[in-house]
Design brief:
Layout: E1 2-6, E2 14-15, E3 18-19, H1 21-37, E4 42-46, H2 57-73, E5 77-80, H3 87-90, H4 94-97, E6 102-105, E7 115-119, E8 122-129, H5 134-141, H6 148-164, E9 171-177, E10 179-180, E11 199-200, E12 210-214, E13 220-221, E14 226-228, E15 245-251, E16 257-264, E17 271-276, H7 278-283, E18 294-299, H8 308-315, E19 319-324, H9 346-357, H10 365-387
Helix pairs in contact: 1-2, 5-6, 9-10
Pfam families: Metallophos (PF00149), SbcD_C (PF12320)
Organism: Streptomyces solicathayae
Subunit structure: Heterodimer of SbcC and SbcD.
């Protein structure tokens, strides 16, 4: 059976205030085309369909069109909710939609109730485990203790119990949305540590043939049978080096992974990270490859240059993020700012702060006068409030 594994669409998300709806629509076009061209037997969507629990209308419309197109292709789709989704909202109408071959699995209670598909070699049971927030599902799943590993383990116990009652040779696939130990994270995933230790061991999924994971945005194989598809688009500059793909998995007659191929997703615009002094960045011919990319620029000038964004965008018109990390000047103190606060007056602390953020260049005479006046005003105001108490 040929499976197309994807996840983390995050419909409605922007990239540093740039709308990605067109890029997300292009990805869904690519998804449907891949299903047709590669003769896919089932599509697996491992959570975070939307970026927010209450998504914008345009994202809902995009999702609605995607469901209709997947139904028209006639290839079953199994989809779970992730930590960004509202499970209840995503699951509305699941019973009716299932008649069209779109199987939404958003209720933890259904962990042991698979979608059963068949091919020439027999049945394949596909179990959808939506994102499991420990504090909300512990009692429902009968987990022995709180924590991600405990609730996911309890859900997998239901999976294994159902699988054991099926005909020998039934193959099994699990969709889950979790942070599995050994996975490499990026800056764009929402933290799920609330409710217990976030990472769960890959061994919690023992006993099934393939595990289609969602949550981490980089495509990666933790084992031959346990894989993250990653997000189809980059959602932070930490993903600059990611290759955005889907997994095309051929599940053999005995449950072995006969083939695992990465299918590249469309790239709306390359990402570039550049670092250095502003004048150097504007003159460096080696950076020409970033002139049409979305750019994050880290400026290391000891003193913040004038109009840095305007000057950067003259060469790199798609600069989206600007970071300042000034180089330390020769002789600048390397102690931490907290250490340098000790035994300092308010004026000295303020001047030291200015030098700290400027990489050692302290305030000039006019700036010292402004700081002195500000502190004097604060002291007068505080004295007046004390008198009027």
């Amino acid at each position: 059976m040929r499976l197309l594994h994807t996840s983390d669409w995050h419909l409605g998300r922007s990239f540093h205030r740039v709308s990605l709806l067109d890029a997300q629509a292009a990805f869904l076009d690519h998804l449907v085309a891949t299903v047709r061209e590669r003769e896919v037997d089932a599509v697996l969507v491992a959570g975070d369909v939307y970026d927010r629990a209450v998504p914008p209308l345009a994202a809902v419309e995009l999702f609605d069109r995607a469901l209709h197109r997947l139904a028209e292709v006639g290839v079953p789709t199994v989809m779970i909710s992730g930590n960004h989704d509202s499970a209840r909202r995503l699951g509305v109408g699941a019973g009716l939609i299932e008649r069209a071959g779109i199987h939404l699995r958003t209720d933890p209670a259904g962990a042991g109730s698979p979608v059963v598909l068949s091919d020439a070699h027999g049945d394949v049971a596909l179990y959808g485990l939506p994102y499991l927030e420990p504090s909300l599902v512990r009692e429902q799943l009968g987990a022995a203790r709180a924590g991600h590993e405990a609730v996911l383990g309890a859900a997998m116990d239901r999976v294994r119990a159902d699988l054991a009652a099926r005909a020998p040779g039934t193959r099994s696939v699990v969709l889950a949305h979790a942070f599995v130990a050994g996975g490499e994270a990026s800056d764009s995933e929402r933290d799920i540590t609330v409710g217990g230790v976030a990472a769960v061991p890959a061994g919690v999924f023992d006993g099934v043939d393939y595990v289609a994971l969602g949550h981490l945005h980089g495509s990666q194989a933790l084992t031959e049978r346990v894989r993250y598809s990653g997000s189809p688009l980059a959602y932070s500059f930490s993903e600059t080096d990611h290759r955005k793909t889907m997994w095309l998995i051929d599940l053999g007659a005995d449950g072995t992974i006969e083939a695992a191929e990465r299918i590249d997703c469309p790239v709306p615009r390359a990402l570039g990270r550049i670092r250095g002094r502003l004048d150097d960045l504007l003159a460096d011919p080696a950076l020409a490859r970033h002139e049409e990319a979305w750019v994050e620029a880290t400026l290391t000038d000891p003193v913040r240059p004038a109009e840095p964004m305007a000057r950067l965008t003259a060469r790199f018109p798609h600069t989206l993020n600007l970071v300042f990390e000034p180089e330390r000047t020769e002789g600048a103190p390397y102690a931490s700012y907290a250490q340098r606060l000790r035994d300092r007056t308010d004026q000295q602390i303020a001047e030291d702060f200015v030098a700290h953020v400027r990489g050692g260049a302290g305030p000039d005479g006019a700036e010292r006068t402004v700081l002195h006046g500000a502190f004097a005003d604060v002291r007068v105001d505080a004295a007046e409030r004390e008198v009027n108490r």
